[in-house]
């Protein structure tokens, strides 16, 4: 007997939309992580405005790159999405704490992390069905 929580296979179009969204997220997160690791002066200045001590960008860069790598691997992509959501939640909190309107960007990024995964992974769609199945 087959489980009723099983999602139907995704269409090629839906799969590639998910890949495109996830690809854009991965490119941005890798760029963000590398800029932090390289201690680019503009990035270090922005971090100081958020209250991060000097030199802490290296650790943040490493964290975001590891989280992104976990997101890219299909078997661990859900864990990666959870980790990236936590990272982006911290970014949102840091921006909101100083009253910056830029906090909305990290919220959108978090939504896109999950949207990309939702479109490309039938396991996630089975877990979070948007349509109610008929009996």
Characterise this structure.
The protein is an all-alpha fold and 135 residues long. The chain has one domain (12-123). Helices cover 71% and strands 0% of the residues. The protein has helices spanning 12-37, 41-49, 57-72, 77-97, 103-120, 122-127. Helix 1 packs antiparallel against helix 3 (57-72) and helix 4 (77-97) packs antiparallel against helix 5. It is elongated and about 55 Å long.
| First-to-last CA distance | 14 Å
Helix content: over 70%
Q: Output the radius of gyration.
A: 17 Å
SSE order, one letter for each helix or strand: HHHHHH
Q: Could you say how many structural domains there are in total? A: 1
Structural class: mainly alpha
Tell me what portion of residues adopts beta-strand conformation.
Answer: under 5%
Structure summary, number of beta strands:
0
The major sheet is characterized as:
none
Give the rounded overall mean pLDDT: 87
Oligomeric form of this entry?
Answer: single chain
Total helices: the number is: 6
Q: List segments where confidence is low: pLDDT < 50 over at least 5 consecutive residues.
A: none
- Structural shape: elongated
């Amino acid at each position: 007997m087959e489980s009723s929580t099983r999602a139907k296979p995704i269409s090629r179009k839906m799969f590639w939309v998910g890949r495109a969204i996830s690809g854009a997220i991965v490119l941005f997160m890798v760029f963000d992580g590398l800029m932090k690791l390289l201690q680019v002066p503009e990035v270090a200045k922005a971090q100081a405005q958020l209250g991060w001590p000097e030199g802490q960008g290296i650790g943040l860069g490493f964290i975001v790159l590891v989280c992104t790598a976990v997101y890219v691997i299909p078997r661990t992509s859900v864990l990666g999405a959870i980790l990236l959501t936590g990272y982006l939640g911290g970014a949102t909190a840091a921006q909101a704490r100083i009253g910056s309107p830029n906090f909305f960007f990290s919220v959108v990024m978090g939504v896109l992390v999950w949207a990309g995964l939702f479109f490309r992974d039938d396991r996630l769609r089975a877990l979070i069905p948007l349509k109610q199945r008929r009996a």
